[in-house]
């Protein structure tokens, strides 16, 4: 993690985690093409600093496994439907990023060979080394596991230095700022505190635990604010750093 000049990245390789909701933009469901292009431009601008970028995207804008199972769909089936939703999103993101001139590879946790490469760790690393953005779709390929945990696992597998969690909130608060007044924002926080405190639900505990056990930082920032991702990659003060 060597910070050189103001325009050189603080990290060599990061994993960007985007929630499925981020793909909706101002819509209530599905994919907002205008917003995907905004995301693609944000990603390109961060990538242009020289950082290697892998991406894990959620699927909640299309289908959420937990919600599906509450509606009576078998939980495992519902989770597989959620995994397919993440691949939908990955395809849309890949298309948008490639349209603005950055090479990408979509790799999926289970094989859909006609659409994407299978996730092969060393191949993903090679793509990153060659300057391609790798989008990992399909979560971990296993039911009962969130895309936050998938993000932590992929980040560790492909040796990322930090997870950048792009959300609709500008960092981590002691209580949910959308439901409470008088909340306090953290500039930094330990993974231990994030794990222990029940009011901090920025990532599920299995994801936090993986980060904690393997000493990987998490940056939580507002992806809706233009320029934030690049600033965070450059090590500027954006959102909350959980370390
Ligand atoms: P290098 O080995 O570095 O040249 O990597 P590469 O990804 O350019 O080589 P490759 O010839 O393996 O891939 C060329 C294109 O085919 C890329 O867009 C890959 O994403 C795609 N591709 C590779 N394997 C698969 C696959 O199993 N399924 C699908 N759908 N596409 C694949």
- Derived structural class: alpha/beta
CA gyration radius, whole angstroms:
17 Å
The CATH class label is Alpha Beta
Distance between the termini: 13 Å
Task: Find the CATH topology.
Answer: Carbamate kinase
Largest sheet: number of strands, sense, barrel closure: 9 strands, mixed
Bound compounds, please?
guanosine-5'-triphosphate
Number of strands: 11
Shape: globular
Secondary-structure arrangement, i.e. CATH architecture: 3-Layer(aba) Sandwich
Beta-strand content: 15-25%
Residue-averaged pLDDT, rounded? 94
CATH superfamily: Acetylglutamate kinase-like
Estimate the helix proportion, in percent: 25-40%
When the domains are counted, the total is 1
Tags for this entry?
alpha/beta, 11 strands, globular, single chain, nine-stranded mixed sheet, Carbamate kinase, binds guanosine-5'-triphosphate, 8 helices, two-stranded antiparallel sheet, 243 residues
Describe the structure.
The structure is a single chain. By secondary structure, this protein is α/β, with parallel strands linked by helices. The chain contains 8 helices and 11 strands. It has a 9-stranded mixed sheet with strand order 4-3-5-2-1-6-10-11-9, sandwiched between helices. Strands 7-8 form a two-stranded antiparallel sheet. Helix 1 (33-47) links the parallel strand 1 and strand 2. Helix 1 crosses helix 3 (75-99) and helix 5 runs parallel beside helix 7 (205-214). The longest helix has 25 residues, at 75-99. Bound molecules: guanosine-5'-triphosphate. The site of guanosine-5'-triphosphate has 7 residues, from loops. Guanosine-5'-triphosphate binds at residues 105, 113-117, 130.
């Amino acid at each position: 993690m060597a910070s050189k000049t103001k325009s050189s990245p603080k990290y060599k390789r990061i994993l960007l985690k985007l929630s499925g909701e981020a793909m909706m933009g101002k819509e209530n469901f599905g994919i907002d093409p205008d917003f995907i292009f905004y995301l693609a431009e944000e990603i390109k601008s961060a990538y242009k600093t020289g950082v290697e970028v892998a991406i894990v995207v959620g699927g909640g804008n299309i289908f959420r496994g937990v919600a599906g199972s509450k509606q009576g769909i078998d939980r495992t089936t519902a989770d597989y439907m959620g995994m397919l939703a993440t691949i939908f999103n990955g395809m849309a993101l890949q298309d948008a990023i490639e349209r603005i001139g950055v090479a990408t590879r979509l790799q999926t946790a289970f094989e859909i060979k006609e659409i994407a490469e299978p996730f092969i760790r060393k191949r993903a690393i090679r793509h990153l080394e060659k300057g391609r953005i790798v989008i990992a779709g399909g979560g971990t390929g296993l039911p009962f596991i969130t895309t936050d945990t998938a993000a932590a696992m992929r980040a560790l597998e492909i040796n990322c230095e930090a997870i950048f969690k792009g959300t609709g909130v500008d960092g981590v608060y002691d209580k949910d700022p959308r439901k409470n007044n008088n909340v306090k924002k953290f500039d930094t926080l330990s993974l231990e505190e994030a794990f222990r405190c029940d009011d901090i639900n920025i990532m599920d505990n299995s994801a936090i635990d993986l980060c904690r056990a393997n000493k990987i930082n998490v940056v939580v920032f507002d992806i809706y604010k233009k320029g934030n991702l690049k600033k965070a990659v450059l090590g500027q003060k954006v959102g909350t750093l959980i370390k």
